[in-house]
Amino acid sequence: MGRETFPERYMSVYIAAATLFVVGWGGMITLLLYAVPTVDARWVFFLLGMAGLTGTAVPFVVFLSRRFGRRVISSRVLMRRAIWVGTFGVTLAWLQLGRTLNWSIVLLLAFVVVAIEWFVELRARSLWDPGTSSGE
């Protein structure tokens, strides 16, 4: 049982990221070029924006987790963190649509997202069982 190398360990994460990237940004381009601005198109815009931002964020999340993390992080945690980036971006776009976005709201939302992720990680650490293999 050899140790897995980095590309083999996160290959499923990169495949998911590539799929989200292509579907999200390809759909966004198609939507912006060919759709009539209706309520349905607005919801599709947010859905595709979420997919595109999540797919774009995955490589950065993997890099930052490898660079600054103390231990190996599971694929689920990496995808969850990338989904937070997508959620943050789509929320900012939604607030800008209503002309309510300003820097204080951006900073408050960033703080809330980081705090929620920190609490989720804190809970995962408190539930860790030394009898399991990876802990997460």
Structure report:
The protein is globular. The relative contact order is 0.11. Helices cover 77% and strands 0% of the residues. The chain contains 5 helices and no strands. The protein is an all-alpha fold and 136 residues long. It has one domain.
Summarize the structure in short:
The chain is mostly helical and 136 residues long.
What is the secondary structure topology, with strand pairs?
Blueprint: H1 6-9, H2 11-34, H3 39-68, H4 75-97, H5 103-126
Q: State the helix count.
A: 5
Helix content: over 70%
- The sequence of SSEs as H and E is HHHHH
- Uncertain residue ranges: none
Please give the alpha-carbon distance between the first and last residues.
21 Å
Integer-rounded radius of gyration: 18 Å
Instruction: Tell me the domain tally.
Output: 1
Count of individual beta strands: 0
| Average pLDDT metric | 90
| Global geometry | globular
What characterizes the major β-sheet? none
Percent in strands: under 5%
- Tell me the structural class: mainly alpha
For the structure shown, list the relevant keywords.
globular; 136 residues; mainly alpha
